[in-house]
């Protein structure tokens, strides 16, 4: 058998770790965007041989969350946004 102080320390550490994990999960579920990335439209950039500041016209963005996300595709002619939702009937979109 473990001594009582060792038991107390072990259980308090386990409880603290469990509480921290629950807080991290709650923060992740509450966040709108989990993944943020930038994407280069390689084909468009190669067609016009873009370099330097011209390359910014070919960099798009991805924002994905748990139930919804948005993609902004940039291929030199302006942004084309696309939004999606996995369960549109269950999730209210604030935007």
UniProtKB/TrEMBL annotation:
GO terms for biological process: equilibrioception; sensory perception of sound. PROSITE patterns: PROKAR_LIPOPROTEIN. It is a multi-pass membrane protein. Keywords: Membrane, Transmembrane, Transmembrane helix. InterPro entries: Clarin. Belongs to the clarin family. This is Uncharacterized protein. It comes from Silurus meridionalis (Southern catfish).
């Amino acid at each position: 058998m473990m001594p009582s102080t060792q038991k107390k320390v072990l259980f308090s550490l386990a409880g603290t770790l469990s509480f921290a994990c629950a807080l991290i999960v709650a923060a992740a579920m509450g966040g709108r965007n989990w993944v943020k990335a930038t994407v280069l439209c390689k084909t468009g950039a190669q067609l016009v041989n873009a370099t330097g500041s011209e390359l910014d016209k070919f960099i798009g963005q991805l924002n994905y969350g748990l139930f919804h996300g948005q993609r902004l595709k940039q291929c030199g002619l302006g942004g084309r946004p696309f939004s999606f939702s996995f369960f549109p009937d269950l999730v209210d979109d604030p935007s």
